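Suppose a colleague, Dr. K., hands you the sequence of a protein chain of 352 amino acids and asks what its three-dimensional shape might be. Before reaching for any lab equipment, you can write down a predicted structure in token form. Begin with the sequence itself:
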Amino acid sequence: MAEMKRRHWNRRDDGGLTFTELGFGTAPVGNLYRAITDEEAAAVLDAAWQYGIRYFDTAPLYGLGVAERRVGRFLARKRREDFVLSTKVGRIMKVCRPEERTGIGKFFDTPSRREVFDYSYDGVMRAFEASFERTGLERCFDILFVHDLDVFTHGTREACDHHFAQFMSGGYQAMASLRDQGVVKAIGGGINEWEMCQTLAERGDFDLFLLAGRYTLLEQEALKSFLPMCEARKIGIVLGGPYNSGILATGPIAGAQYNYSDAPSEVLDKVRRIEQVCLKHNVALSDAALNFPFYHPAVVSVIPGGQTIDQVASNDRARNTPIPRELWEDLKSLGLIRVDAPVCEESSHGKC
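The predicted structure, expressed as tokens, is then:
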């Protein structure tokens, strides 16, 4: 069984949590983009465990409950003290007709359920209880994230502001109460936008943020203010979407995915230029992309996910691939990454 480097987070002097550098995002085992069997999902989760991964992140949205059930079934065979588990609140799953279910064309072979956003006190408590039941674990989650409280998900600033107000007046108190009671050790947000993460951090007492796709080899605008705030307040960052939904893994090919849609021309062009620098240094684009976020001192874990054993193996191999310092210097000199992005020995984490 492989050993993996770990990073300890302790903001409240209560022992904190210890994360493996690589975590596992479970949307793919919730039948994201294609259906897989329970047996295939179990094999992928077991591969992650064998490679040393001990942090697993899930959510009701992932397969409309499928991922939580599969993760719970797998982790039920493990000692509870050996892993860290997070899930998310903000959605209630309602029974519906098959043609009305959430995620048609995105999640496959799922229960007939439709999402109802509910960031109220009662909504958060109901979502938490439902997730607890789906996993079936006796002592369940270490971390609770409010999910998708952003414009990207809700479509307009007005809709997002409505849900934000509901959350801060209700759901936030529910999450804080669960933390105060010791039911969970940490609370935060699983968000697609760093600006909303910063707003939450300014308005409440949050421990961790799962920032999806917004601090990557392609995007570093979070360095403007949010990530320095996290360092100052000892807020940990779980970095989701290190490949920006796929393009940093596949490269700028036809149909490359960015933010779960076909990549626009300007993104394709920038990735093409980044890839050229990587090739100059004999480094795969995907290897550079996975390693880049680790250099920031606020990052406690990176969770690329995986739907096959080969993808899990590829992520492990990439994390253990040395990246020449000169590659990062070239990217900075060409304006392809921010000059203030921590890389190599400039940070207390990571390696070249």
